[in-house]
Amino acid sequence: MARYFITGGAGFIGSHLADRLLADGNDITVYDNLISGRKENIRSHLDKSTFRLVEADLVDFHSLEQAMKGNEVVWHLGANTDIPGGNRITDLDLNNCTIATRNVLEAMRKNNIDKIVFASTACVYGDAPPETSLKESFGPLHPINLYGAGKLACEGLISAYCHLFNIKAQMFRFANVVGGRMGHGVIYDFIQKLKQNPSELEIYGDGNQQKPFFLVEDCVGGMLCAFHNSDSQYDVYNLGGNSVSNVNHIADIVTEEMGLHNVKYKYTGGRRGWPGDVPVVRFNTEKMNKLGWRSSHTSDEAVRIAARRLLEIE
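RESULT FIELD:
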């Protein structure tokens, strides 16, 4: 049994990670400000002796340092999740990604914790040529949104702390993670829009954006696979599927699952869904595959499964 500290552990991915680690017999501390995370996601664990919730912010260093005491591994998933929001509030990712990560690392150093698992993003790659199959070695990295820039800065800080203070790190550049408990993203947004107006669906951009989607349980499984099977002191992994989903097809899947017909698609226009959006992302996951992990579904299958789960919940 290990003692794990999960930042953002009441969020979409973090709560699924907490489920898995608790099921495996570990002690869990969830540290979450419950702004994007929800207590409902972890309610079934609140009375367990092996579970503790600390409701606090990552920018509150004193609270973070105290809450982290006695843990062995930090799973750092806490961050801003509103990527377009960084265009309006330009220090959102600086505070909630970069400074928050520096605080996590410094709290680890002061508490003599030497292992971190970090949730990064495909956004660090920026707007690579559409035909590029992105490997972890791709570069130079030029993010085109502040979320990607913030996460890339986090990767740099983690690298420095690893080499200066003998910390071991695994960092995962996520593709689009989908499933139950989602509170944002294209599938969630389409469902909400169609509940408001079942006859018309607004689609950002031209609908031709292509990105890899994979299920949250595959995401958690991938992180655990590398955590248990990698001997590297510091390493980066792409985590996602090798196939992609077209946004227009995602709209078709959602309307089908909602039982809607003859829905009119209304486009805002342009290649990008919003300023800072990367229209085409293609992942190379060979590095994770060599560790024994691969996504259990195609991207389109994952989208359909996620839509069904969200509709069941609602």
